[in-house]
Amino acid sequence: MHADVIVLGAGIVGVCTAIHLQDRGLKVALIDRRAPGEETSFGNAGLIERSAVVPYGFPQDLRTVLQYARNHSSSLRYQPAALPAMTPWLLRYWRESRPNRLAKAAADMLPLIENSVAEHDALIERAGMQHLVRDAGWLEAYRTPALFAEEAAKASKLAEQHGLKMQILTGEQLRALEPSINECFVGALHWLDPKTVSDPGALVAGYAALFVREGGTLVQGDALTLMREGLSWQVSTEAGVINAPRAVVALGPWSTELTAQYGYHVPLLGKRGYHMHYRLGATPLVIPVVDLEEGYVLTPMRGGLRLTTGVELAAKGAAPNPAQLDQSEQKAREVFDFGPRTDMQPWMGRRPCTPDMRPLMGPAPRHEGLWFAFGHNHHGLTLGPVCGRLLAQMMTGETPLTDPRPYSPARFA
């Protein structure tokens, strides 16, 4: 089978890239070993984070670093044996998180964040997925009065600077809005611009169904069989060999397994995270809540109340460790009323993160027709549609919606 473009990876970024390429008249084959939205895109907290105008940087204050070093934080845990191999990446991440560099990263990412909700809205309407999306924003809750006051002041300036809608809620106002929350939280910031998704995997599957309805080809296959044959790229699938002059690598945390075969050693770290679903309590939570001091998110989902953990640093292939999820659940039960676990075992996934907090979006430096679309850090769900549009514009010669140079794969060549 011949196509104009092969897109490898049917997560949120790959599916959206395939749709936008198809919208520009190209014949697109979307390849994955599993069904759309069943890997990293499935397991997130369901936030389309329009308010996330500053990337998640490495903490710069010594107190927080020492707290993480003790390895008892529910926000971040690490496997000691994995740290030596990760040290170069972490050191670069720390350097890139210095105030001036973090500000530059924020400026580079802002055009993508600003367009994230509008790009999702367009696909949600086309795909008929409105029933999965809510407009109530999300809550950033605090346990400590001093920290709440400090962060509220920062957030007010940030909201004014970027034209974001945000309300500062006292503890009483928070509990009036969400009666299921007890007095452990002294207040919260209610960010109103973001949207929330009650089933992220289903949303990606809905976008993929749109792609197929409009003429796209979706096939199961092994991305690691990609090879160059003459002027074409080809990959083996259950439908036979598919070839095309261009191929897009959108495999999330697995992308480097393929790019390394072609000599690209990208510093991509898979930050692990877990989630578990629970039965709703007598007064169900309505708006997602991020417990900033303990590092977990609680989100009402179609499958129950989903608790999503912070970051775990562990060796690739290391066995799951329930400690972080158990600790986060204990902290969440201090605040919220919810029932027992409903999943047989925790879900675990990896967030594909670059040390400079920018994705890789653009042509491979040394291979004609090979394109990269991965490394979206903690914002894959948020950025999928807008990055799909940007990459399609680059590949078809359109004027891009923003300068793509900050995301160039060549910066790691």
From TrEMBL:
Top-level division of the source organism's lineage: Bacteria
Keywords: Oxidoreductase
InterPro entries: FAD-dep_OxRdtase, FAD/NAD-bd_sf
One Pfam family in the UniProt entry: DAO
Domain FAD dependent oxidoreductase: 4-394
Protein name: FAD-dependent oxidoreductase
Lineage, broadest ranks: Bacteria, Pseudomonadati, Pseudomonadota, Betaproteobacteria, Neisseriales
